[in-house]
Write a structure and sequence with these properties.
- The complex is a heterodimer of chains A (213) and B (355).
- Chain A is 69% helix and 2% strand.
- By secondary structure, chain A is an all-alpha fold.
- Chain A has one domain: Alpha Horseshoe (Serine Threonine Protein Phosphatase 5, Tetratricopeptide repeat).
- A two-stranded antiparallel sheet of chain A has the order 1-2.
- Chain B folds into 2 domains: 197 residues, Rossmann fold; 120 residues, 2-Layer Sandwich (Hypothetical Protein Tm841, Chain: A,domain 3), CATH 3.30.1180.
- Chain B is built from 8 helices and 14 strands.
- Chain B has a 6-stranded mixed sheet, with helices on both faces. Chain B has a 6-stranded mixed sheet with strand order 9-8-7-14-12-13. In chain B, strands 10-11 form a two-stranded antiparallel sheet.
- In chain B, strand 1 and strand 2 form a beta hairpin.
- Chain B is globular and about 55 Å long.
- Chain B starts with 10 loop residues before the first helix and ends in a 10-residue tail after the last helix.
- The chains are: A mainly alpha (213), B alpha/beta (355).
- Chains A and B meet through helix 3, helix 4 and helix 5 of A and helix 3 of B.
């Protein structure tokens, strides 16, 4: 079970991470993109954090829809519609409530990632955010299928996301601006896969911190 | 970083305020969400044209808002595409009942944000079409990349379609015309230096003093090949050959189908440019290269085109679609017929193009 407070903690934690990693993400993007990813993600999630203040009475579905709209209207670039779609489709797949089940959380990611793939038309191995999201989803699905503790399941999912992110380093980019570099996009970690890893790891942290309190 | 700015976070808004005041005879700027629109919009029964993209390419796109060109332009942060709410609100503002054409440069972010905006506007009953401009011949391959980028042909598409809208073309006709301009136009660019966005404060890529980057796009991204610096004549030769030797480029473009009421992939093949063709020839500064140097490029380009049996019907030399202070040049050739020339020659009143 995931509580509304855990969802709020997740989003705030993501905001902290993007603020801290703004320079690093932009540096990764400078190598193979257009050097704005850190600035864009940070701008979007600071806005999310601000908007959370007005959502103390909202249920989880409403909060996640707010995140979608906020990211779509404030991030820009390719990341805006992609992360926006992740939250939009994800939120659309769960019931309006102050807590959601583990399998609802799985639905959120399943539908969200499906939406990202439909919008961005990227597949595994294209050197995009999908390369950390898909392994995370696969791990989460297995763990929840095995009735593992959600804290453990999310921790493992974050590890898979991290591994997926690191495995983008040798890949040749096939989507987005990095794709124009062809071979030259090799030996660089994908900034989108990196920001997606942060999103998953923030959730793992938020849920595990809450249950240990 | 040495720039004529105040606080980094205020750059865009401050510049847009100045832009709005300086050109208040032609346009207005809306904030939250941000878009520039012609003062007399909406024009009843005229198809409205909207474009947009990251800022930092001035005069594109805001500078082309006014009569005879764009009805609205949606600027994103510098080198970052605008967000769907900007295009959505702009569409509602300028739609005169004849529908809206989105002219979109083929950059992943721009394409997705404009698609989302079109979906939103259609829910409000506004007929919206998206035409993607992808004229950068430096990108050879569309299967393993995001495809060719939008460059100088964007400016010509905005001009020509703007004039056609004034002349009473309906949305179907303007959409078809815009696709024709895209199929007939090709560009290629190069950079001598990178540029610095205020938000980053450091160059967008690292380029040694004796090196140049061939096949750059316009967002400060690196190009397709880095090589030793060459003379203006040699560089011009590379760009013109890149355009004239271009194979029949075929790719799938995502278009809205009114029949199917859904997005569809449409296979499109460009027209080659060669012997006997008439062209509009544009020599464009990437921002930091002075006009004087552009004339040197123009001179060599003219010689090469003449040798290839191509007639320059109209010429453009200047700053049209830039990358902040980047030094470099792009060449755009648009194969024209009487229809395209007529609309190119039509009157236009915008901050960036008056005739």
């Amino acid at each position: 079970m995931i509580t509304k407070q855990e969802i709020i903690n997740w989003l705030e934690r993501a905001g902290e991470i993007y603020e801290k990693q703004r320079g690093y993400l932009t540096e990764l993007d400078k190598a193979i993109g257009d050097a704005d990813h850190g600035n864009n993600m940070n701008r979007g999630f600071q806005k999310v954090t601000e908007n959370l203040a007005d959502h103390s009475d909202s249920d989880i579905k409403n909060i996640l829809s707010m995140v979608a709209k906020t990211l779509i209207s404030s991030v820009g670039g390719a990341a805006g519609p992609l992360y926006g779609t992740l939250f939009l489709k994800g939120a659309g797949s769960i019931d309006a409530s102050d807590e959601i089940s583990d399998s609802d959380l799985l639905h959120f990611w399943e539908e969200g990632i499906k939406g990202v793939q439909a919008r961005g038309r990227a597949e595994a191995g294209d050197k995009t955010m999908i390369d950390s999201l898909l392994p995370a989803l696969e791990t989460l699905k297995q763990s929840i299928g095995n009735n593992e503790e959600i804290t453990k399941a999310l921790e493992k999912a974050a590890q898979s996301a991290k591994k997926g992110m690191e495995e983008t380093i040798p890949l040749i980019a096939k989507k987005g601006r990095a794709s124009y570099l062809g071979e030259r996009s090799k030996e660089h970690q994908d900034p989108g896969a990196t920001s997606s890893y942060y999103l998953v790891s923030a959730l793992a942290e938020a849920v595990s911190n809450n249950s240990s309190e | 970083m040495k720039k004529l700015i105040n606080k980094v976070d205020d750059v865009l808004n401050e510049q847009l305020k100045g832009f709005a005041s300086a050109h208040n005879d032609l346009l207005k700027v809306n904030f939250e969400p941000t878009f520039a629109y012609r003062k007399d919009a909406p024009i009843k029964n005229k198809v409205a044209l909207i474009s947009g993209g990251g800022s930092g390419h001035e005069p594109l796109h805001n500078g082309y808002v006014g009569s005879g060109m764009l009805d609205a332009a949606c600027p994103g942060e510098i080198f970052t595409s605008p967000t769907p709410d900007q295009m959505y609100e702009a569409a509602k503002k300028v739609d005169g009942g004849a529908g809206v054409l989105f002219i979109v440069k083929n950059y992943t972010g721009d394409v997705m944000n404009f698609e989302m905006a079109a979906d939103m506007a259609r829910e409000d009953g506004i007929d919206v079409r998206n035409v993607i401009i992808d004229d950068d011949v430096a990108v050879k391959d569309s299967l393993f990349t995001a495809g060719r980028r939008g460059m100088g042909v964007t400016v010509l598409a905005e001009k020509i379609c703007g004039a056609a809208a004034d002349a009473g073309y309906d949305l179907d006709q303007i959409e078809a015309l815009c696709r024709k301009v895209n199929r007939h136009g090709k560009s290629m660019g190069m950079a001598l230096t990178a540029c610095i966005t205020p938000a980053n404060g450091t160059p967008s890529f690292d380029l040694d003093e004796n090196k140049m980057e061939i096949g750059i796009g316009i967002h400060g991204e690196p190009g397709v090949e880095r090589m030793e610096l060459k003379s203006a004549n040699e560089i011009t030769q590379m760009l013109v050959s890149g355009i004239l030797d271009d194979e029949n480029y075929t790719r799938k473009l995502h278009e809205w189908s009114s029949d199917k009421n859904d997005w569809v992939d449409v296979k499109v093949t460009d027209e080659p440019i060669g012997n006997g063709d008439r062209v509009i020839a544009m020599v464009n500064s990437m921002g930091g290269t002075p006009i004087s140097e552009l004339y040197g490029v123009y001179s060599k380009m003219e010689e090469l085109l003449e040798a290839a049996g191509i007639e320059i019907a109209r010429s453009m030399v200047g700053h049209y679609i830039t990358s902040l202070e980047m030094q470099g040049v792009s060449i755009t050739l648009l194969k024209v017929d009487n229809e395209l020339l007529k609309f190119y020659d039509a009157p236009v009143h915008t901050p960036g193009w008056h005739q």
